[in-house]
Amino acid sequence: MRRRPLIAGNWKMNGLIETAQELVEGIGAALSDRERERKLQCEVLVCPPFTAIHTVHQTVSSKGYSMKVGGQNMDVEGPGARTGEICGIMLRNVGCRYVILGHSERRQFFGETNEIVGKKVEAAFRDGLVPIVCVGEELKDREAGRTIDVIRPQLEAVMPRLPEEASKRSTLVVAYEPVWAIGTGKNATPEQVQEVHAFIRKFLTEKLGADTASKIRILYGGSMKPANAAGLLALEDVDGGLIGGAALKAQDFLAIIDANPASD
Ligand code: 13P
Known about the structure:
Layout: E1 6-10, H1 17-36, E2 43-47, H2 50-63, E3 68-71, H3 88-93, E4 96-101, H4 104-109, H5 114-126, E5 130-135, H6 139-143, H7 147-156, H8 166-169, E6 173-176, H9 190-208, H10 210-215, E7 217-220, H11 226-233, E8 240-243, H12 250-259
Parallel strand pairs: 1-2, 1-8, 2-3, 3-4, 4-5, 5-6, 6-7
Bound molecules: 1,3-dihydroxyacetonephosphate.
1,3-dihydroxyacetonephosphate binds next to strand 8.
């Protein structure tokens, strides 16, 4: 099954209005060139911080860039008395189509458990957003040979929260992000990545059936950069990337998009 690759930039807590605008214009204009030359065969997504989403989306839509916009997190509840939170409807309102959920930084610094991530997945689908669910092990887990033991419950918590309709379920995106590879410059080797991605595909096949599982995109994230992107993106069960640091430089992000095997 041919899946359309997704190259997604997670800007994390970076980007004031001016820099966000500059970045999205740098990426967008180059994407328009690639589109004209029919060289763009992947989906491109940027996930700015909340405060820059509106500006970025306005720029994307007014200039007609081939790019989608997403959030980096959302609350489990709908609108209401939840000081400091942002709900899915609000993300939709400013043009988001996707939302990253359960990023390891949310799990580590904000106490998000597998259960909370599961509830957020349900809320995202309810609010009309496609969740990108992040899973991944810490270095100590990998060293103890417990990688799959950590990832399995992270995925299990999401399964009962998925919508009934197979067509919606198959839009789910999973991102494998080994915590030890995030922002460290140490990316996982292609063998390590393919092994975990194959496990995730098998897990999804068992839970959701082969047809749905074959449509779900599984991204890799963790120090993906122009120098290693081609090798990672060519792997059988890797359907794109979730990129942090390298997504903050238009040239690097574009080089990763160009490294995608489907782009040539
Ligand atoms: P880096 O690409 O900076 O390692 O970050 C990866 C990540 O966390 C994307 O969500």
